[in-house]
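Students often ask why we bother encoding 3D structure as a string. The short answer is that it lets us treat folding as translation between two languages. Here is a chain of 57 residues written in the first language.
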Amino acid sequence: MNSSNNADGPDISKLKAKVLELELELTAIETGWLLRRKLRKKLKEVQAEIDGIERKL
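And here it is in the second language, the structure alphabet:
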């Protein structure tokens, strides 16, 4: 009942599932990186605006 095809099948399925899991993790990390980058840019813009107002005072 244990043919080589059946024995390899679950291993391949597990590996494919692991690939999908790793791709999802990478996507989450990349999304986090992009959001962090966007927030840092916005922070710099707001800080520059504050600096400009303080110079006028």
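Translate back mentally: Residues 4-56 form the longest helix (53 residues). Keep this in mind for the problem set.
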